[in-house]
Amino acid sequence: MTLSSPPAEVPANGSLAASARRPLFRRVLHNPLGAVTLVFLALVVVAAVFAPLLAPHDPNAVDARNVLAPPGEAHPLGTDPSGQDVLSRLLFAARSSLLGALTTVVVASVLGVGAGLVAGYHGRRFEASASAVSDLLMALPTVVMLLAARSVIGPSSQATMAILGIMIAPAFYRVVSNAVVAVRHELYVDAARVSGLSDARIIGRHVLTVVRAPAIILAAGVGGIAIALQAGFDFLGLGDLSRPSWGGMLNTAFSVIFRSPQQLIWPGLAIGLTCVALILLGNALRDELERTGGPPARRRRSPARSRPVDEPVHSDDDRRESTADDSLLDVDRLSVGYDQPDGSVTVVVPEVSLTARRGEVHGLIGESGSGKTQTAFSVLRLLPPGGRILGGAIRLGGQDLARLSEREMTEIRGRRIAYIPQEPMSNLDPTFTIGHQLAEPLRITLGLGRAAAKEHALTLLARVGIPDPERTYSCYPHQISGGMAQRVLIAGAVSTDPDLLIADEPTTALDVTVQAEVLDLLRDLQSESRMGILLVTHNFGVVADLCDRVSVMREGRIVESGSTREVFAAPQHDYTRMLFGSILAGTEPRGPLAETGPDPATKGLPA
Amino acid sequence: MLRYVLRRLGRGIVLVAVVAVTTFFLLYAGSGDIARTILGDAATEETVLRKQQELGLDRPVSVQFGEWALHAVQGDLGRSWFSGQPVVDAIGSRVAVTLALVVGATLVSALVAVVLGVLAARTGGWVDRVVQAGSVIGIAIPGFLLAIGLVFTFAVTLGWFRPTGYVEFARSPGGWLASIVLPVTALAVSAIAGVAQQVRGSMLDVQRQDWVRTLRSRGLPERRVVYLHVLRSAAGPALSVLAVQFIALIGGAVFVEQIFAIPGLGQVAVQATGRGDIPLVLGLVIVVTVIVVVVNLVVDLLQGWLNPKVRRS
């Protein structure tokens, strides 16, 4: 029994309830698991409510001459060690179990939802104290506290279950206050407030709808915990012994485990199945809510649909030289797609071909969604989960990277191809020092010793312009700035002396001043080592600054390719021209918004 | 780092104090007829009054608390109303047994849960579905029910273990191990289920992080990326769940000790609760809260070691 952790992770956000268009109850009935558990729980409720009608005997009637009787006509499930009818006791026990669970759920939800609404809606002072109480209750071992309570209140089942409710209330409190805080700043709640609705009306109409679904899911789980705990207390003999209970029946059965182990079956099943049913119901509810609340399906782009493409425009020298010996990377009709849950494949890059040469910087430019990053990840063979290369070849030296095994590819990465990411801050492992992350590939990939790796890493840090390499070496990523982090990543990329460097928008996330410095650094490193760079960018300025050659990409295809000078001087493809046309630089600068001169507010006024 | 530890320690001490005060007043305010309960219905009014005086129950609760607190800070938690034994001794002689069970179950569940969670996250497919379904069932089945099932299957039917009883480690390490296999299993299942779910979830989350791709791009082998880097980041949230499970396990031990007839804190607790032995119950609550505080402190230290960012907050 995990008392402190509600079984179903309840997503506490507004999207949950907002997605509940059809009544939740009906949708859960259509979910196989939901339907089975609901039917089972309904049967338990029926058994509890109609126990007096259904039970063949008085549950407490003792028959000393007929103990441990096997199932028969008079006693469908047999009798227990005191000759009481097992079926009748089972039915009546359902009453106290459900009543106890109900008590806990009602107390916990009224307290938790109430406090959560107030804390989330009015916030601040109340929230601080409510959270403190909630933390305190969550930190306490529930069973031990319940035992303590039981020692003074005596064997009253309902009182114990109410106290359990108080101890579980923080679970509701957290879900509700989080959900309310999330919804409080929604525009429609502001609108309701502006239109003069009272707080009570707003809470009733807008906030409760958001909170309802997560609270119901939680209630199912809490119900399961309550039934388990109550049965446990009854089993220990700490419950109300005068009434039949599943836990008590289990205790009786346990005492005759050698003589008549089948006695364990019915109370054991009743407790186990009811608990499991409640937890599964919670899961089914969550599944139903998440199914509709999930992300919309990715836009389909099937290869069949693609219209005939015009051959990419190559400036003459490009075509001539592309077959020459100095070609480093040759991407040939590469296509990339993502497997969808329904078995289909969404093509994101239908066909792309490009050639990058030794010692050159090759720009890959296009608007977002044109597939340039997908192309870059394909070369590294590091596509996100579900993504794969559908066809084409990626030749590096003599090898086709698209056909290498994962093991062979590990040999290529780092040694032959390196990568500089876009977001410096999210691309360093937060739990290791900068030094560790720099030295590790040197030791593993290059096989340097510990001391040599550290020395080399420090040299690299100094080379990329980090002022105090020793200090940065022992820093954690959260202790350095974004510009510094990008320098560290560049150092890491060139550390293993690769032939080809793939830089995915390496300056996009940086300040303008830092951008220029990073570009300078890249240019210097490139000319020192004569490595080839494939530079993915959407910025013509970067291309003009750094690239020898450029390929323009649109909808997963290269539309134009050539030397930077020629493409810039005379773009051939309409799309390239359009991209140039959309750059603000070079257009007539707009004048100041207001005429300079006397303050417009005072202009024209009589002096 | 030192300040971080001291702050956590301070919070723990406050928690123990708050719990002690609250529990004391709730217990003693509610213990009006306790003398009558102890003596039974046959006792005369006079003997009941005398018993009340003897236990000090005739004085105002605040006075009783002052006296108790004065002794408590010196490590004296009073005496049992029934046996007269000092509460500290009654608990001290049993606490090791329960801790052995709970710590054992925690270690077992950490190990098994990491294996299952990583397996589910890495392989996916039917392995993942089995682990997920198993986790849900493992969480849902009450521990004491599982314990009974284990006794029936492995002790009564198969006869592999003795159904109940506890062998002290000092007397026979092998016998001790055999005597705690079933109880530890019964306790561990729900913890395994909870932690495995978390390990799986955080492994999947962390694997999607950008830095994992960057590490791979450096040519690091898959094993190193997953088991050194990804697992370390995923371990933090899993450790938090494990800490919560540890607290739940102390509660679970109450039931399991009863089923396997293990002389731990759980037995003391059930007996004291049934008789209304308030000093002993209060002592148990305080000792368990101290254990919880210590565990949380250890977990906080581990979190700080796992994730340097935590140390600042």
UniProtKB/TrEMBL annotation, chain A:
Residues 94-282 form the ABC transmembrane type-1 domain. InterPro entries: AAA+_ATPase, ABC_Ni/Peptide_Import, ABC_transporter-like_ATP-bd, ABC_transporter-like_CS, MetI-like, MetI-like_sf, OppC_N, P-loop_NTPase. The keyword Transmembrane applies. Keywords: ATP-binding, Cell membrane, Membrane, Nucleotide-binding, Transmembrane, Transmembrane helix, Transport. The keyword Transmembrane applies. Pfam families: ABC_tran, BPD_transp_1, OppC_N. It is a multi-pass membrane protein; Peripheral membrane protein. Residues 307-323 have a biased composition (Basic and acidic residues). It is found in: Cell membrane; Membrane. Residues 329-580 form the ABC transporter domain. It comes from the Bacteria. Residues 290-326, 586-607 are annotated as: Disordered. The chain crosses the membrane at residues 32-55, 98-121, 133-153, 159-176, 210-233, 264-285. Belongs to the binding-protein-dependent transport system permease family. This is Dipeptide/oligopeptide/nickel ABC transporter permease/ATP-binding protein.
Automatic annotation (TrEMBL), chain B:
Its main location: membrane. SUPFAM superfamilies: MetI-like. Gene3D superfamilies: MetI-like. Residues 95-303 form the ABC transmembrane type-1 domain. Keywords: Cell membrane, Membrane, Transmembrane, Transmembrane helix, Transport. It is found in: Cell membrane. InterPro entries: BPD_transp_1_N, MetI-like, MetI-like_sf. It is a multi-pass membrane protein. This is ABC transporter permease. The keyword Signal does not apply. The keyword Flavoprotein does not apply. Pfam families: BPD_transp_1 (PF00528), BPD_transp_1_N (PF19300). Belongs to the binding-protein-dependent transport system permease family. The chain crosses the membrane at residues 12-30, 95-121, 133-156, 176-196, 238-260, 280-302. CDD domains: TM_PBP2.
